[in-house]
Specification:
The chain has helices spanning about 5-25, 25-30, 35-55, 90-125, 130-145, 145-155, 160-190, 190-200, 205-240, 250-260, 265-295, 295-300. The chain is mainly alpha-helical.
């Protein structure tokens, strides 16, 4: 091949590599997020705000019973979202229930990303018997139905915000171990890992400085999508009566409390169900958009 042709091919390869790096670096800048993304961000920001400041906002006591004010409609007697069958303010209970969902979901995802990411990256790097033992345990955990296992553990340790948060966090770790292991196996084959080994870098440095930051980037995106699943799990436990003690408000318990009144009105059940639906939908919209922003192939579109 003539020298000019070889030089042109090499230059084209360099340009293509540079384009890939620029695509990754400027994916957020090049692609507008769109109205749906910012609407979802706004809704999630509202939920987090209510969860943090519910006790300081001018809401009624979420547990104050007022039988004479039961099943009031929206915008009636100062109750923006009406009241439930015991006359408790729906908006106040939604705000205080948001705190339960936010604490449990964010804590479990954070624990899963950090602990599961470190374990998964480590076993994938070393491989061998350690990897087989850990993955055998992970597969055994996945063999049990998730909800049944969660119900059994909560029934044994008791229902409280602390025990529920710890239980869901621990049970979520195997999922992140499997995901981080798969990501690490893909990164290990790259040239920069081989270069680190040739230069005599220690295993600890390769794991924590070269592999883990890249794995955590993918895990965070996965964790955003997993937030919705945790909210559903807590709502299911609350609906079945295995969440935080009564009368503390949760979205799942509000749905369960409204079930006996379905013949009279849909409001006590429909309002918390709608809030939960919009929250989970917003989480998935944001998570999916973040994932696509870091995907080179989709970022080119």
């Amino acid at each position: 091949m003539p020298d000019d042709t070889q030089g042109a091919v090499a230059e084209a390869e360099i340009v293509n590599d540079t384009d890939d790096l620029e695509t990754l670096d400027t994916a957020f800048v090049r692609q507008p997020f769109g109205l749906m993304f910012w609407t979802a961000i706004g809704w999630l920001a509202l939920i987090v705000f209510l969860a943090i400041f519910a006790s300081w906002l001018p809401f009624d006591d979420p547990n104050r019973i007022n039988p004479g004010n039961r099943l009031q409609g929206i915008f009636s007697d100062g109750n923006i979202l009406g009241t439930d069958s015991l006359g408790r303010d729906n908006l106040s209970r939604l705000a205080h229930g948001a705190r339960i969902s936010v604490v449990i979901s964010l804590t479990s995802v954070t624990v899963g990303v950090l602990i599961g990411g470190i374990i998964g990256t480590t076993i994938a790097y070393y491989g061998g018997r350690l990897e087989k033992m850990v993955m055998a345990f992970v597969n055994m955990m996945f063999a049990f139905p998730g909800l049944i296992l969660l119900l059994a553990v909560v029934a044994m340790v008791g229902a409280s915000l602390q025990s529920l948060t710890v239980t869901i966090s621990v049970l979520s770790i195997p999922l992140y171990i499997r995901f981080s292991r798969g990501s690490t196996l893909a990164f290990i084959s790259l040239d920069y890992i081989a270069a680190d080994k040739m230069l005599g870098a220690r295993d600890r440095r390769i794991i924590f400085r070269s592999l883990l930051p890249n794995v955590l980037a993918t895990l965070v995106t996965f964790g955003l999508l997993a937030l919705g699943g945790v909210i559903v799990a807590e709502g299911t436990l609350a609906y079945l009566g295995f969440s935080v003690p009564v009368p503390q408000a949760t979205w799942g318990r509000m749905i369960a409390d409204g079930k006996p009144q379905l013949d009279e009105t849909l409001q006590p059940t429909l309002i918390p169900a709608t809030v939960m639906f919009l929250t989970i939908l917003s989480i998935h919209l944001v998570g999916d958009r973040v994932r696509r922003s870091f995907d080179v192939r989709e970022a080119r579109i």
